[in-house]
Design brief:
Blueprint: E1 3-8, H1 15-27, E2 32-38, H2 52-61, E3 66-70, H3 72-75, H4 79-93, E4 98-103, H5 109-125, H6 128-139, H7 144-153, H8 165-179, E5 185-190, H9 208-214, H10 218-223, H11 229-237, H12 251-260, H13 273-282, H14 289-296, H15 303-315, H16 319-327, E6 334-339, H17 344-353, E7 358-359, H18 365-368, H19 371-395, E8 408-409
Parallel strand pairs: 1-2, 1-4, 2-3, 4-5, 6-7, 6-8
Antiparallel strand pairs: 3-6
Helix pairs in contact: 2-11, 4-8, 5-8, 6-7, 12-15, 14-15
């Protein structure tokens, strides 16, 4: 059984994602493709444009055999934490042969893989020249990601293709694979079409950013531009309409959480003393969440960094729980969001070989998990409840909770 994995957000699922799944399966002669997907909140600290169950349906329609949920503690983390948590989960399944990721590259895929592996070795070993350049960058007032980029550029040539959003994640995946001495092999597939931030509506391979802008218009959704046919039909038939979900849909809930936590802000993941002070300083001018974060950001603390801080406050994502999960090896369980019936042998193989429990029915989780693992999963339940309440207030319908929602099976 040859099994590949993809770590994804699918926010939303588009033609480029389906192309990646199909090419991965074809080029590596795979029997099954697993997708480890973020839940209702993403790595940039924003809500997913549509729910994890809707995105699971699109992923399965697009060719995935099994969709697992990446826990919120990792899904909303820095690129390094996102990758570390995801790789730990895939390692513990004991059935993944290949990990595929898309990269923006101009040359050959193998050449770019070698470049990424060299950069990953530098990040993992941190030679003296890297440490010196990193300290220089931070002293200049660069944010940590920018200072690290500055340090890497001082250690190797030909780094121009390393620092796009997708390539940064690819670098983190390879670093995590190396640190964990993983048996999983990396597989690069060149991204087709627009780059990550592009808002261009030209061509068949649109970026997720462009699609989020375009799909607010029902006419664009009906035309199916940039979206696989099966996903378009599913989204068009969705009644009531349950997207888009956006950051400011959580403005009131965030404000309430912030007020209740004013004296304990530094207990949340990513919130330093300085960030806490800045957030407190500007809170009197709060009108909505996105404007507040724009007001609070500066040269050292990017909008994305502050967005992650805000979502950690909103979702009650605490440093002590994250520290415990790291000490325990990051991965407590594998949560199934959906699968294709043809993928049943894959599920059976995971149940047989996995080092962590496979969670299907949520009613079973308390008897399958340790106390620390239950606490971790309950953070996902809480995140789902917060997301569900925002949807109910915006769209006026009562969504199913985590215990009533069925696994998506095609």
């Amino acid at each position: 059984m040859r099994t590949g994995a993809i770590i994804a957000e699918y926010n939303p699922f588009h033609n480029g994602h389906q192309y990646q799944i199909n090419k991965f399966r074809q080029d590596y002669h795979l029997d099954y493709v697993i997708v480890l997907m973020s839940g209702n909140f993403t790595q940039r600290g924003e809500p997913a444009w549509m729910s994890k169950y809707q995105r699971t349906q699109c992923a399965l329609l697009g060719g995935a055999d099994l969709v697992l949920e990446l826990p919120a503690y990792y899904a909303t983390g820095s690129a390094s934490l996102f990758a570390e948590g995801a790789i730990a989960h895939l390692n513990q399944l004991n059935c993944v042969d290949w990990l595929c990721f898309g990269c923006e590259i101009s040359g050959e895929e193998n050449e770019h893989l070698m470049l990424l592996e060299k950069a990953a070795d530098i990040l993992n070993k941190e030679p003296p020249v890297f440490k010196t350049r990193l300290a220089e960058g931070l002293k200049k007032g660069l944010s940590y990601p920018s200072a690290r980029e500055y340090a890497l550029k001082g250690c190797m040539d030909n780094t121009e293709n390393l620092f796009s959003p997708n390539n940064i994640l690819a670098l983190e995946y390879i670093s995590a694979l190396k640190r964990t001495h993983s048996a999983i092999k990396p597989a690069i597939i060149k991204r087709e079409g627009s780059d990550y931030y592009s808002t261009s509506a030209e061509g068949n391979f649109l970026s997720a950013t462009a699609l989020r802008n375009l799909l607010k218009d029902d006419r664009i959704l009906s035309s199916g531009k940039g979206i696989p046919v099966e996903s378009r039909i599913f989204l068009c038939q969705m009644k009531p309409r349950e997207f888009p979900v956006e950051l400011n849909d959580f403005s009131a809930m965030f404000a309430a959480c912030f007020i209740a936590s004013k004296t304990t802000l530094t207990e949340y993941v990513d919130v330093t003393e300085e960030i806490s002070n800045r957030m407190l300083r500007f809170f009197d001018e709060y009108q909505n969440l996105s404007d507040y974060l724009m007001l609070t950001k500066n040269k050292s603390y990017t909008y994305t960094r502050l967005c992650r801080c805000a979502v950690h406050i909103l979702l009650n994502i605490k440093k002590d729980i994250l520290c415990q999960s790291k000490a325990d090896g990051y991965a407590y369980y594998a949560r199934v969001l959906g699968f294709r019936k043809a993928g049943s042998p894959l599920l059976a193989s995971i149940k047989k070989h996995s080092s962590i429990p496979l969670i299907g029915k949520m009613a079973d989780y308390s008897k399958l998990l340790t106390d620390d693992a239950r606490t971790f999963l309950e953070a996902d339940i809480y995140a789902a409840d917060i997301y569900r309440m925002a949807c109910q207030m915006k769209f006026g319908y009562r969504a199913k909770n985590e215990f009533n929602q069925q696994i998506i099976i095609l």
